[in-house]
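name: query_chain
kind: protein
chains: 1
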Amino acid sequence: MKTVADILKTQREKKKLTLEDIHKFIKIHPRYLSALESGDYSAFSGKVHAKGFLKIYAQFLNLNVEEVLAFFRREYESDYEKTSSIIENKKFKTFDAPKLIITPAVVLSGVFIVLLVGFFGYLFYQYRTYSGAPKLDIYSPKNSQIITSENLDITGKTEMESVLFINNQKVNLNTDGSFATTIKLKEGLNTISFLSVNKLGKESEDARTVIFRSAKEVKEASESSKITY
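structure:
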């Protein structure tokens, strides 16, 4: 059965390229390229990490990216996301419920219980709102994206009254918690860190990895990958 590893290795050898050759163009370490060609997804930090590098590699080799990703999903889910489910059926013994006589004392007790539950529910809501980690959504860039401009636009949203840091630099928020800023990229692989801290000191972290390649380099890589021998 055809595998992702077979597809990648066959196409690379067909183009007579080494892993080091490809590393020079797409800036992905040879050990990750080798892991993809051997089907060893344990070398990656997670599914998103492996999928991002695979997409970049497949694009460089001029493969059908959607087809390669379809094979990847099948392999990853079958080998690394095996789950088991247990279904339990319980039989309940029927019984006759005792008759309830409604008296003023019962009504007052019911009202008291409702108020008590509501009070503790409110306290729990306040606790979750102010003591939980702030929500942090990154709209752009997408993970493992290839960028051809050294200026990268970053957008997202976090909770209002939080303090946001991008690559350890404080970024101002709009009144609704949204943010937008631009940073400069260095050639090759760039890791962008996000940290949101609410007023109680609770933190949420995220990160995005992008690859900056100049338009000239992208053109040269594309032309090189199309050379036939």
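note: The domain at 4-80 is CATH 1.10.260.40 (434 Repressor (Amino-terminal Domain)).
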